Amino acid sequence: IDMISRVLIRATLAMATTVMLGLCDGASSTLTLRVRLPNGQTKRITATPNDNIGAVQKRAGLNGRSTPVFLDAKCETAIAEDASVESLKLESGAMLFCAAATSTKTVDGPTTESPKQSDVFAARSRKTAQQSASTFEGLSAERAGLTATRQKDPNCTQVSLDSGMSQQLAAYLASPERGGGGDDEKKKKPRRVALLFGTSKPKAGGLAGSGPSKQLKGGLLKGAEGYETTVEALWEPPQPGATFEAYDSVSLERAIKGCPALTVAKGLGLSLVGWAFSHPPRDHFLSAKDILLTASLRRSVEKTEGKAAAAALVVVAVRDATMGPAAGTNANADSTKASAKKKSPPPSGTSGAVGGASSQEGVTFEAYQISNQAYAWALDGTMKGFPPLQSSPPPKGGDGHAAAVGDIADAEATTVTMSRVVVAEGKEVNRVDGALFAVPVPIVTHGGGPLATRFPPANRPERRASTRLLSRAVFGEESSRSGGGEASPAPAQVLKNLCDFHLLLFLHKRLPADVLSPLLDLVRRQGALALTAPPLELPLYFVTVLEQLCGIGGSES
Asked: Quick one: which H or E segment has residue 367?
């Protein structure tokens, strides 16, 4: 019995050892691999060392050619389909990666994703759409890109306004004809907007050979220290939608897409360098609406003139103390500032109140730019409300003018609403103070510019231009009364009298293009040579055309 028991025990141990060895051999020949699918899910499959990657892809439900697999999460180098598991030295539990599935968006429709993304992972990714990075380095870079920073130096180092132009605008804004600042809504002065025309030149600093290929981020040229902008003329578009609470931004954006002022300015060698708006006394620099509208105009200039011209775009805020304080401002504090400026006005050629805007009229000029970050955030949709106007046709007002939705309600909003959470002043917020995006620009005045400001500006209902005023401006008072003849000035003096932006704008509607274009070129050359050479002679043909237009020397026009 003992012998039989020993034999049975030895047989049992032998069988158990054989089974264990078999199991171990099977375990060593079978691996468990994990595959990260394009939709973010992880799938476990079994493979042997002799299996190739193509077999692994099939077991994972992937199409080998269209959906390659990678050894690293960055998905930089795809694994060949004929590579074996053993040659890749993959062990049980190894992870293989697939590139994330891409999604497309239609203009008006919702996000269109692959069918496999309708799972928990896709739902979680949609909830955190503002955070797209999946690594620590990516999160750090994304946070840095969503941190609002104040721009230290403006792209435009200085803006100079023509003194005659600024004086004329200040006198008009302070004119009693426009109304007062009382409580009567009908008598309150409406705000005004204008396009600014002039030149922007890079500041000296090694600009030889600079061109579009040498532009840096923000539009600055390589080697440039900024731009110096000179404003020679301004033009106010028709503004039927302007009120005391808000300016007419619709007319301004419509004008920049094409208007007679752009044609005349181009003929004179001038370009669009910025825009201006008037406002009552207030406690902030630029409102959210001012920032968004500036970004919209900068985008338009970039499309037509290039990044360099767009980077130099300025906005001039004209503070009109005669309008009374804006809603929600500290009237006492602002009146104290105004009285201080009146007692000791800053000299011409400094920032603040320019010499042309006399402090006696209560009108001062301040220049700003929006930061390059604000412009970039407006373009990529981080800022809400860009462009300021709705894409759908806005409702029309009683005068048939298309009014911008929410213009009056948001005219003095000091914070810009964001479409996602950003970091401002160390806090995660979705509304950022507009002061972080406003960059002050030194402002000065200059005299002796190429253009005069004698003729009445367009679109001011208080004083309208006429052919009689044109005759007086071009040929003089005596010539208009006598009907021409010996009283007519010399052609050189007539050309000098034509150097007026608003006078030329008046002629734009009354002269054909083949007559106006060479006339503008003569005025441009006259303005460029005014300080260095004798005046040019105006051909007799143009003198005759102007006399006929003004009704001099013949029948009334």
From this structure: strand 363-370
